[in-house]
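User: Structure please.
Assistant: Input sequence and predicted structure:
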Amino acid sequence: MTDIQTEFAPLLASLPSTVCSIHESVWISPCDLPFSAEVRSMCEVNRCGKYGTSWSCPPGCGEWETLRDEFCACKSAFVFTTCHILEDSFDIEGMQTAAEDHQKLDNAIAEALSRTDLRYIHLGMGTCILCKTCTYPDAPCRHPDKMRRPPEACGIDVCAMSKAIGIRYMNGPDTVTYFSILLFK
């Protein structure tokens, strides 16, 4: 176990019981994250409506090659998921509630990490929601150290990553799984 893992483990154990639990997790080398220009180019299609509207999404989040090099310079990466049961595969409200629950877990982890000297980059699901209105592109990000970029916006192929590291991308019918990555500097 590395020093980072040793310091991080008790933080996870001390998370409030009011947040959802981590479903699966693994420590990996940041250089093992699979980056892909194709994944990043999917953002340009703008299905979520966030392309060009936020510092956490393309093009504001930076070029994927630069992000790959920045992330690879980190010492360690902690990949984790949450898994949520839905009423059925069309349960949009359940998916939204699950996303909010995952973000609450992300927030609790960030809060716990803020009480340490650990430096990290936090990649989370969906676009950053720290500010009601993002300053992009007119002014710098108000919270660059707290902003969460989606892994896909950074060019990370989450599906390929899940297969490579042994974490399930799909957890069965009527479920939704969300991913986050903590890159420790």
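Residues 7 and 116 are 9 Å apart (CA to CA).
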